[in-house]
Amino acid sequence: MSAIEGFSPTTTPPDSLIAIHKLYRKLLGPALAHDTGILDFNKVPDYAHTARLVLIRELDRCLLPDTLACFEGSQHREVDDPEIHGVKVYEHQDLPGESMSSFFHSPPDCPLDFPAVDPNVHKPLPLNQFLNRKLRWMTLGGQYDWTKKEYPKGAQPDFPADIYKLIHGLFPETRPEAAIVNVYSPGDTLSVHRDVSETSDAGLVSISLGCDGLFIAGLEDQSTGQLKHVVIRLRSGDAVLMSGPSRFAWHSVPQIVANTCPPWLSDWPADTFPLAEEANTSNPFDAWRGWMAKKRINLNIRQMRD
Question: What is the mean pLDDT of residues 187-204?
Answer without folding.
Answer: 95
